[in-house]
Amino acid sequence: SKPIKNICCIGAGYVGGPTCSIIAYKCPHIQVNVVDLSQERINAWNSPNIPIYEPGLNEIVQKCIGKNLHFTTKVEECIEKADIIFISVNTPTKTYGVGLGRAPDLTYVESAARTISKVAKTSKIIVEKSTVPVKAAESITNMLKSNHQPNVEFQVLSNPEFLAEGTAINDLLKPDRILIGGDNNEKGKWAIGQLSSVYENWVEKSLIITTNTWSSELSKLAANAMLAQRISSVNSISAICEASGADIEHVSRAIGFDTRIGNKFLQASVGFGGSCFQKDINNLIYLCENLNLKEVAEYWHQVLVINDYQKKRFVDKIVKCLFNTLNNKKITLLGFAFKKNTGDTRESAAIQICKYFLDEGALITVLDPKVEYEQMILELSNPQLNLPIEMVKRKVQLCSTDVIEACKGSHALVVCTEWDIFKTYDYKGIYEIMQKPAHIFDGRLILDHEQLISIGFHVEAVGKKLNNQ
Ligand code: NAI
């Protein structure tokens, strides 16, 4: 075994960027090149405005960039120099053909693998970091065989990423575990050892778990499915609370004391979003269907059904409280990102909520500390939503710098993202400038409901019945 000196990461996105920044930061003896086909994204990484917002990330990038961390579009050159190559490209759900709406689209993984096999003149360890279907490592191995040079060997490892956006830096610095899957033979074990040696620069050896490739690939899908399942489970109980007069926060607290259940990830909400949960559950469902495990597929499908139901329930309640019509009423959305501390809007619950509001004829003003206007419009012009783009631009505004302007004349405030700053607003002042009756719908359970009611608001929150006057 020779020490790893050079790493190339294909894909400079939410995973590739932060992961490699931490590797560079913790391993000054390793040169790390993060490559991407998108010149725009690479330019952004090399500018003072890095392309993703993640607390603590910019500081780490600025410490390492130009020293042992480089962002570039020179894909082939960096592949050739590398001992280890991470594949961190996007794996969206297929929008065409076989497995439409279910199977992950491996177009980008395949193109990365083909480039590697074309240009690599020496043997490499290839690491699938992207979330892929079970047995993808086998497919990648076959793709790599396509036109590789003589005497070049590839060892393919699975090393799924478990970071969560919003807390990525802490997750990467202090991971719960690192999972590495590889072939159960001499060469596979050697490759696992090489990758493990990189992590051992900052992660305790007992936290580095090794397994076979399939178990590793399935573990990532299973972990995300279980996390999403917890949210849907709590949200399903929140529906019972609203109907019965129980309080979901009290129920979550009570069940969370059970050490077998644990108290994390029990927060009721408008439903989960983000680029991963839905996609990965669909990936799991597709796998089950292919393995003829119909009951298992149906079980996981229900997690998605409840998530959509939660958003629909929330909106239905809003429409009902606003006298069954939103036509030409101004509604202020607090948050558009899929969760706090990120600017990421992929699959955000706010998107579907806006869709329902626009179908009802509402005028929407969005307040979000990190989401940009173009990004928001891009999400709302997704053809699946079937909203005419001119109408979206006419009816949806972003107004993130002026809270008063955003709330002036509004009939309702709707909390979609749990940003801390929303707790600090002067709701007394906001109440004065809103239409009456002034409504607040707390889809994240972050506001002080009793205080808001005492100001005069009509308040509704997920998972509880409030004593409105
Ligand atoms: P992303 O879309 O932010 O980044 C992917 C990047 O890969 C893009 O910049 C794209 O231009 C680039 N790319 C695609 N094909 C390429 C090629 N052939 N050569 C060079 N660059 C190429 O995606 P993100 O969020 O980083 O996700 C990547 C993978 O990691 C996905 O499989 C995802 O499921 C997984 N993952 C994502 C997490 C997240 O929090 N976003 C967490 C854990 C896993």
What does this protein look like?
The strands form three sheets. A six-stranded parallel sheet has the order 3-2-1-4-5-6, with helices on both faces. It has a six-stranded parallel sheet with strand order 11-10-9-12-13-14, sandwiched between helices. The chain has a two-stranded parallel ribbon with strand order 7-8. The termini are far apart. The longest helix has 32 residues, at 213-244. 43% of the residues lie in helices and 13% in strands. It has two domains: 6-203, NAD(P)-binding Rossmann-like Domain (Rossmann fold), CATH 3.40.50; 304-461, Rossmann fold (3-Layer(aba) Sandwich). Helix 9 (213-244) packs parallel to helix 12 and helix 11 runs antiparallel to helix 12. The protein has 469 residues and is α/β, with parallel strands linked by helices. It is built from 18 helices and 14 strands. 1,4-dihydronicotinamide adenine dinucleotide binds at residues 10-16, 35-38, 41, 75, 88-91, 108, 111-112, 130-131, 161, 163, 165, 275-276.
Would you report the number of β strands? 14
Quaternary state reads: single chain
Domains (count) = 2
Main sheet, how many strands, which sense, barrel?
Answer: 6 strands, parallel
Number of helices: 18
Q: What is the 3D shape?
A: elongated
CATH class category name of the largest domain: Alpha Beta
Q: List the ions, cofactors and other small molecules found in this model.
A: 1,4-dihydronicotinamide adenine dinucleotide
Rounded mean pLDDT score? 97
